[in-house]
Each structure stands twice: as structure tokens, then as C-alpha cells.
Give the backbone structure.
Amino acid sequence: MRRKWTGSVSGVRRWMARWMALSAVGAIVLVSPAGVFASSGPLGTETSSNELMVILAPGADGPDLARAFKDAGFSAPQGIIGLQARYRDYRRVSVASADTGTREALLQIPGVVGVRSIYRASGIEYPILSNGQVIARFKSGTTQAQVRQIAADAGMTVARQMVGLPQAYVFDCDEGSRTVEECAGALTGMEEVRWVHPSLLFKLQSHASGPIEDTLYPYQWHLNNIGQLPNGRPGADIDVEGAWNATLGGGAIVAVIDECLQRDHPDLAPNYLTGYDFLAQTDDPSPTLGPATAAR
């Protein structure tokens, strides 16, 4: 069983079984309306009270570091299996209390350059981590100068503006003065902000998928193309069966990127959250020339 971690801001290049598009869709998936951000943990998670993540200086790991943790009253930091190379310096530490005093004590240990919360979610055995960034979308008309000033006031700097999502930005949090949660929380409720959320790292577990009971599934070549239709090209599909090995979609938020979406369709209306028409520049993605094709 192969598992990988992906960042909620940078892992959306391909929609495949091995990757989950949280981070930059990431951005779309991590979205919360301004004011909804919960300090207890984003996206329905809970902030762990007995563990923290520490970020080590490059090359700081080893016996000397373990002794330094022990001298400071902590257990040795544990590696987090499966992280990408760029997160190789992330470690998990068990603590009596994940409070401010504990964070400050960890930061005094030589070789520790950062401390972040760890989140937990029901039914998920792996820790959910922060990558130190915040994603936010601003209302139309907010200038880049305003965005930079708002970010600075919240203890952040602009990392980049997101491509394809108007007025959405990725920010680096100055963790020397504020936690990532505090950086995101500083933007909630602001008149210029539509939504804001920390960017998260999480690991997916493979699931065994049962037989497909939909009698029309063999004809849905866009899901699994094996050349079942005349002139069909095997493999020209979205690899949905591979994605099902990573998640069956329970509790997931799905982003549909298409010409339109019939949001009032009986199959979609109960679970529809929000949408955007990039052509008309409106929040209503409904078709204008007739019923939409199958997006369900």
C-alpha cells in the first residue's frame, strides 16, 4: 500500500490516486468563509493537545539533538513517515500540554527553528500538519497594495497570487511573531476577505473498492476508458478507479471544473456549496443555454 503526503497549496498538478488536490486546490478545498475559521482546528479537525510538530534546522538531527530534548524535559522527536523531501526536517514531539509555554520551551532547544500545531480528525490515524502558509481570497476590487498591507498587518507576506482563481493569494506566516492559526484568524471577519484558511498537509490511505453496481458505468468512458466505444482511445479518462484506491469520497468537497454546473439539479442541490463563472465573472455557474451535461 503506497501512501504519500501532499501540500494543500502545491499538490494539485494532477488528479491521481497518489495525490490529493488540497493545497492549491488545494485552495478550493481548504476554503472557509471569513468568520468561519475555528481556532480549535480547521476543516472540522481538532488541535492536538498532547503533541506538536517541530521544524529542525538542516542537519540538526542526531544523538546530540535527542539529548538536548531530553535535557529540556521532552522525549526525542519522531520522524513523520512518508513526507516529501522538502519537509524532511518536520518532526513530531509528544508533550504534556501543547500550550504557549511548551512551544517556547521547544524553541529554546538548539536546532529547533519552528513549532506548529498538529491536527487530528476522527477516523484518520495520521497527523494533519500545517506547512506554514495561509490561503485567502479577497473581494473584487481589492488591490494588490491593499492585500500586501493586510498581510503585513496580520504578520504575513505574500508568497504568490494564485493562477486561475481571481483575488486568491498564498501567504507565508511570520511564525516568529504569530502562529499560523493566528495569522489566518487575523483575516477573518475583515470586510475585504471572502474566505481564509491555513494550508494543510495530510496523508491519504488506500481503500479497497467494491464492485461497481451502476449498469451504465461501462459506457462512462470519461471515468475509465478501455476503448469501449468506437474510435475510443484507452486511457483518455480521469483515472477515477485509481483515485478510488486513495479515497471513496466520504466527507470530501469536490471541485468541478467545466463550462457550467446545473446547481439546482436534484442530485446536486442538497450538497452544492459554491461556484464561480469565470467567463461572466459571477458566483452562479448555472448554464445559460439549457440543461448542463452530466457532472454528477
Notes: The longest strand covers residues 124-138. The chain has five helices and nine strands.
